[in-house]
Structure formats: structure tokens, C-alpha cells
Write a structure and sequence with these properties.
This protein is mainly alpha-helical and 128 residues long. Helices cover 77% and strands 0% of the residues. Helix 1 runs antiparallel to helix 2. The longest helix has 37 residues. The mean pLDDT is 90. It is found in: Membrane. Belongs to the SecE/SEC61-gamma family. Keywords: Cell membrane, Membrane, Protein transport, Translocation, Transmembrane, Transmembrane helix, Transport.
């Protein structure tokens, strides 16, 4: 058996600082929103949006943010490779699933009623 390769996560001090700045900007945006309640809703929302946008921008400049962007691009590329069924195929498969569910429901109902009849009427002799 071959040993799987070891994955090392390297996080630089600058990257940690970017993540800390992103978190502080997000918290600052919430604090500014509630702290500026006397200034009016326009100032509140503007400060919230600006600080949240700055926090998101700081996050996306870090390695974690860049890897998230790369993951998103890879996901979009993989979704483009998927061969989606036609409308007719999708409707047929949906019909098969519904038919199977109905058949299983009838089967389970019949099984339940049969067991009920065997246990209560034949074995225990309880008549309803």
C-alpha cells in the first residue's frame, strides 16, 4: 500500500493579517450600522455596505479567498461538462419515480393490512 501524499497548509503572517482585517472590517461594519443609528438610515446602510465590501475584498486577497475563487471556477467548468437530460427524458424519469412510489405505497399498505389481519384476527382472535 502506498502512503497518500501529505498535504501541508502554509499560512503566512500577511495572509493571517488579511483574514484578521477582513473579520475586523465585518465586525466594524455591524458596529457602525448600530452605532450610527442617530445619523439616519442612509448613513447606517452606507457604512455597513462599504465596510462589508472592504471585508469581502480583504478576504478575497488572502490565500483562502483565492482558493475559494479557484474552487468556484473549477465548479463552473465541471458543471459545463455535465450532459443534462432533455425535457422528455426528465419527464419520463419523474413519471417512473411517481409510479414506483405509488406501487410501493400500495405494497406497504397491503403488507400492513395483511399483518394486521394475521396478528389481530387469526392469532389473537380480536374482532373489531
Amino acid at each position: 500500500m502506498a502512503n497518500p501524499p501529505q498535504v501541508e497548509t502554509v499560512t503566512s503572517g500577511a495572509d493571517k493579517a488579511k483574514l484578521a482585517a477582513a473579520v475586523l472590517l465585518l465586525i466594524g461594519g455591524l458596529a457602525a450600522y448600530y452605532g450610527l443609528s442617530k445619523q439616519g438610515p442612509l448613513v447606517q446602510w452606507a457604512s455597513l455596505i462599504v465596510l462589508l465590501a472592504a471585508g469581502v475584498a480583504a478576504f478575497f486577497t488572502s490565500e483562502h479567498g483565492k482558493s475559494l475563487i479557484a474552487y468556484g471556477r473549477d465548479s463552473v467548468r465541471e458543471v459545463k461538462k455535465v450532459v443534462w437530460p432533455t425535457r422528455k427524458e426528465a419527464m419520463q424519469m419523474t413519471g417512473y419515480v411517481f409510479a414506483f412510489v405509488v406501487v410501493m405505497a400500495i405494497f406497504l399498505w397491503l403488507t400492513d393490512k395483511t399483518l394486521e389481519w394475521v396478528l389481530y384476527d387469526l392469532i389473537l382472535g380480536w374482532k373489531r
